[in-house]
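Render this sequence as a predicted structure.
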Amino acid sequence: MALSTRDHTTTRAADGLTQGADLTVYTEADPGTVAHALRPLLTGILGDPLPVRLELWDGSAVGPVGTASTLRVRSRDALRRLLWAPDELGLSRAYVMGDLDLEGDLFAALATLRDAVELDWRLAARVAPRALVAARSVGALGRPLEPPPEEARPRGRRHSRRRDAQAVSHHYDVGNDFYELVLGPSMTYSCARFTSTDATLEEAQAAKHDLVARKLGLHERPGARLLDVGCGWGSMAIHAARHHGAQVVGVTISREQAERARDRVAAAGVADLVTILEQDYRDLAGEQFDAISSIGMFEHVGRARMATYFRTLRSRLRAGGRLLNHAISSVDGSRLPRRSFTGRYVFPDGELLDVGDVVLAMESAGFEVRDVESLREHYARTLRGWVANLEAHWDRAVALVGERRARIWRLYMAGSAIGFEDGGINVHQVLGVVPHADGRSEMPPTRDGWTTG
């Protein structure tokens, strides 16, 4: 069926759809089209007038004209998935399977949808009657569809070693080549630090690594022993050894990460200084270190294990040793819901803790907290860089991990960028030191030596 050419205009105050404009032009679909049949349901969810343009599987459309992005409903299955899971999970399943798509400016679309609605059971109850009527009218009723196979369902006690291994494997063991495509040559899966407007992603990751190394005092103590917890593909370990002469032990419970990290350490010529272990940090025993870095790993620990985590790391440090804990945070803390997109497809069992709680837990474990720094805006820019890498090499990414998983990572990284930009989530580096019995901390008098740019 052809798209109707009948337009009407609605005057609205500036609302983010047309910044600086007084009028927004909307297109209404002809009677008898899918868009016309679904309009009451769509406005019940997203508001009237609709904040985004929607195009349906029969070619009909409804919503504002000329927007930077379009929500495309490619199949009746999208509606069926939402009927059986009328929350973020149903929406996620439709997107992952390709029944629902976002075209154009992905970031703008996600920001607009975030502001328009939050799917939950209250909304589902309110729109259920019209949803059933609409679904019946377009032939979308039916039995529930199988969920995408990429959904994570870890088993066992939450944050036990076995279950943590399952969760970590789900996220990281998807292929080193895929991660290299997304992350770039630095192979660093955490927030970068941009010291100039024209810094590349690789330069920004090196700046972050050096910031961590200097906060830990590695530049003041050549040959210092560093433990890198959750070492990923070895980038921090390589930087510390190459630039500061540190002797590094890196641990990860991802088999694929450990294998690639060892290859990268050898290629960097620092195999005599760096050891990569496929091991849980809780199994470390006996060794003492001058410093510990934990970058982007803490999100897997969980509130229930936080005290044990910090006590364990405290026990591995000599007096005067320092810990740098670099982690995503949220006000009051949040456990990623099992029915959320991120909780089911990206970070199963993930938890974002309040930085204030982190500071208290570190102090309770015997650390003296000496510095807290937010890199929120840097993470938003990092994520946009990763999305750009993925989109620039989309066909290669699909060949490596399949279209569904590539779509998952694209949505997850773009949505996270929006979260860091609007302050919904943050990322903090918290630096703690183990003081000597007489109170000496071995900390420098100022932060002047911590940054080189």
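Summary. The longest strand covers residues 317-329. The chain has a mean pLDDT of 87.
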